[in-house]
From TrEMBL:
<keyword id="KW-0735">Signal-anchor</keyword>
<keyword id="KW-1133">Transmembrane helix</keyword>
<keyword id="KW-0472">Membrane</keyword>
<dbReference type="GO" id="GO:0006629">
    <property type="term" value="P:lipid metabolic process"/>
</dbReference>
<feature type="compositionally biased region" description="Basic and acidic residues">
    <location>
        <begin position="351"/>
        <end position="363"/>
    </location>
</feature>
<keyword id="KW-0732">Signal</keyword>
<dbReference type="GO" id="GO:0030311">
    <property type="term" value="P:poly-N-acetyllactosamine biosynthetic process"/>
</dbReference>
<feature type="signal peptide">
    <location>
        <begin position="1"/>
        <end position="21"/>
    </location>
</feature>
<protein>
    <recommendedName>
        <fullName>Hexosyltransferase</fullName>
        <ecNumber>2.4.1.-</ecNumber>
    </recommendedName>
</protein>
<dbReference type="InterPro" id="IPR002659">
    <property type="entry name" value="Glyco_trans_31"/>
</dbReference>
<dbReference type="GO" id="GO:0016262">
    <property type="term" value="F:protein N-acetylglucosaminyltransferase activity"/>
</dbReference>
<keyword id="KW-0443">Lipid metabolism</keyword>
<keyword id="KW-0325">Glycoprotein</keyword>
<keyword id="KW-0333">Golgi apparatus</keyword>
<comment type="pathway">
    <text>Protein modification; protein glycosylation.</text>
</comment>
<comment type="similarity">
    <text>Belongs to the glycosyltransferase 31 family.</text>
</comment>
<dbReference type="Pfam" id="PF01762">
    <property type="entry name" value="Galactosyl_T"/>
</dbReference>
Amino acid sequence: MIRRRRSSIVILSILLTFTLSLLTWIEWEEEPLYELPDFLHPFQANQSSPPSLRSSATLYDSNFSFSLNLSEYSMQYPALQSYRCRAAIDLFGYCWTNDPLILLAVKSHPASFTRRDVLRQTWAREKKIMEYRVKPVFLMANSGKRHQMERVVKEAFSNGDIILWDFLESHHNLSLKERCFLEWIYHRCPEAKYIFKGDDDEFVNPYAIVSYIQHSLPPHPLEIHGQLQIHPPPERSGKYAVPFSLYPHGHYPPFVSGGGFLLPGELIPSLYLAASTIPVFPLDDVFFGFLALSANITFHHEPRFCSFGLKANRLCQYVDVLVVHGLTPKKMLEIWKYLPNTASCPPSERTPTEDTKRKTLVK
Ligand SMILES: *[C@@H]1O[C@H](CO)[C@@H](O)[C@H](O)[C@H]1NC(C)=O
Ligand SMILES: *[C@@H]1O[C@H](CO)[C@@H](O)[C@H](O)[C@H]1NC(C)=O
Ligand SMILES: *[C@@H]1O[C@H](CO)[C@@H](O)[C@H](O)[C@H]1NC(C)=O
Ligand SMILES: *[C@@H]1O[C@H](CO)[C@@H](O)[C@H](O)[C@H]1NC(C)=O
Ligand SMILES: *[C@@H]1O[C@H](CO)[C@@H](O)[C@H](O)[C@H]1NC(C)=O
């Protein structure tokens, strides 16, 4: 009797488990969220980020004031404020070199295997240009998809150029990528003399970056260089919308397009401090504008950061630009192949004319 009851309990629990797993399976359209496995956390060393120093802030520039109310940010974007950066795949000693180092930091989504593959065949590979050592690093987080993340782990082990944090990839979590990257570079890569920050769907010209550092940057040695946006109004609908309750102001502070900018390593400590103290804004390029404002760092506008794409799109234009947004892998390979044998455009055509169609905030 007892035996029978026990077996019916067993059958019942099997059925229940089956139903539950079926339900979970139906609930997730694709597959359950993928937790990074423990073996990806070999260094559980207490990295002991200090307790959060974050508080509300009111920042001023010459024309406007901007209040960031931490209670609102914590209510609407709790993870952005409280997440403690934990690298599941970290890079130690990555920046040790005898040459002055230029780090090319590329935000990439785990799913973009083809893009990273093409970048490693073109501009995102370690090389020496003039006296500089140029090194790429891919900044990634967890996509929550097992098949992708297992491939990413293999890719990271064979290329050694990926940092993978354990937060979930999402549009708003790109601000976490910004914040964790600042933390990483502060602790692991203080050697970086210059940092270029870009995306994986771009053409980046490392030769033009070195030339820019040698000739155009010196008059503005402690600024952030890029495609400047001066006080644009916040969008209230669409992908880049920010609710009025979070940000009631009519303007953003100045910031550079997240599609590509350049800064000297000396600025990292003050930016990292700002990133640990002010509320984290849910759009990464605007967040960087707030960081700069808080750290009392100004921007320098440079049109050769073509974060919105090129209009005429002639090969000779790619010789002088630092970055061009929105290229297909095929086009990237083609340009890279012909670049060494291409001369600059004639002076009259040299200043790039941007494609102004996409004059919204481009990430
Ligand atoms: C990590 O460091 C913090 C602060 O230093 C300390 O309070 C905590 O106990 C440490 N945790 C472990 C697991 O050692
Ligand atoms: C600030 O306001 C003044 C006068 O309204 C204007 O001339 C100037 O361009 C503004 N500066 C910025 C950075 O917007
Ligand atoms: C910040 O936001 C909270 C929650 O909405 C509100 O109660 C508080 O008054 C705000 N503080 C300021 C200084 O506006
Ligand atoms: C951002 O990452 C955190 C930490 O992994 C996660 O809890 C949160 O859901 C993510 N946000 C979004 C919008 O995916
Ligand atoms: C900000 O920097 C400027 C120089 O760039 C300096 O004159 C000013 O005193 C600084 N302000 C603060 C609050 O540190």
